[in-house]
Amino acid sequence: MPSTPGTGFINKIKAHLELLDPVTWISVFPGLACGAMASGAMQATPHDYLVLFAVFLMYGPLGTGFSQSVNDYFDLELDRVNEPTRPIPSGRLTKQEALLNCIIVVLLAMGLGIWLGIDTGGMRGMVITTMIFSALFVAYIYSAPPFKLKKNIFASAPGVGFSYGFVTFLSGNALFSDIRPEVVWLAALNFFMAIALIIMNDFKSVEGDREGGMKSLTVMIGAKNTFIVAFAIIDMVFAVLVWLAWSWGFMVPMALVVLGLVLNIVIQIQLLADPKGGVSFLKGTVEDGFGNAIGKSDVQEHNTFLRFQVANNVLFLVNNLVLAAMIGIRYMPS
Fold first, then answer.
1. Who wins on pLDDT, 300 or 325?
2. Torsions phi, psi of 53, nearest 5?
3. Domain ranges within the chain, ordered by starting residue
4. I need a surface site. Which of 122, 136, 276, 307 has the fewest CB within 10 A?
5. What's the CA gap between 89 and 102, in Å, rounded?
């Protein structure tokens, strides 16, 4: 049957969009939103909404999109094993088309970073521009030789934590105020939370990583021990968040964080008892359409991690939002 006119072009656009992995874009918004809320200075004006949207566009579709596209470009051989349906190994995009995709989005992200820096001005503007340029650089060396940070978990996890969990908080805050010291704490904790989650996210590619010589934690110590290490980091993050809420005088948020820690530990115990089938009450989140969006795979440990991720992310996000709101209220002009 002959193809419908325009179908080839539309499919090519869809492949370019898939290369940017849209489901990952939203991961930067909580940090940006919390940073902006904690400033206590954002106003309900068209300008403030515009710059908040612009910084999300910079870190989400462009910055995160660049990290995904450049990773696919340099990981073609690995993806033939791990993710053969991705745009390049499936043949829907050539390597040259993928390279063009990378160049366009990184230039747009850099351009937005410069514009936001100029619009904000002063030291705050320098923070925003420096943060996005640093995140883009880390995203490049994460996948590209000779550094290729992703080859070793001890370099790759901090790289992801910095680009996803640290710079977004500072940039969202710098849009509207000087960097609040409380925001630096929240950014640091999100850095460690991202490390814990990326450690477990490697479950899905363990076979390809082993064949390609990638030193993921799962390859080195096995799935169950990887769960233990990641859970220890996550529980440490929640524990420090409890202490911070108490030291800042936020008693109700502190109780919410304690509740989140307890619920997480209960879930973690189930996972450690059954690393492949634990947290079965969240099974639907992986097996329905949402599960397909967030990366369902044939590796059972990875699907179990996705169930845990849903619960953990909700608990952690709620606590971050509540604390950011309380910090922002404290800094609001009286």
1. 325
2. -65, -40
3. 16-331
4. 122
5. 16
pLDDT band at residue 114, thresholds of 50, 70 and 90? very high
Cα dihedral 307→313→318→322 (10° resolution)? 160
Name the β-bridge partners of 215. Answer: 152
Tell me the H-state helices in 144-166: 153-160
Per-residue pLDDT reduced to its tens digit, 76-112 = 877 787 788 899 999 999 999 999 999 999 999 999 9
* More confident call, 33 vs 80: 33
The DSSP result for 84-133, as a single string, is TTSTTTTTSS-HHHHHHHHHHHHHHHHHHHHHHHHHH-HHHHHHHHHHHH
Closest C-alpha among 323, 325, 36 to residue 189: 323
What confidence tier does 2 reach under pLDDT thresholds 50, 70, 90? very low
64, 108 in Cβ contact below 8 A? no
**C-alpha dist (Å) from residue 55 to 17, 29, 69, 299:** 19, 9, 19, 35
Token reading at 16: 């370019």
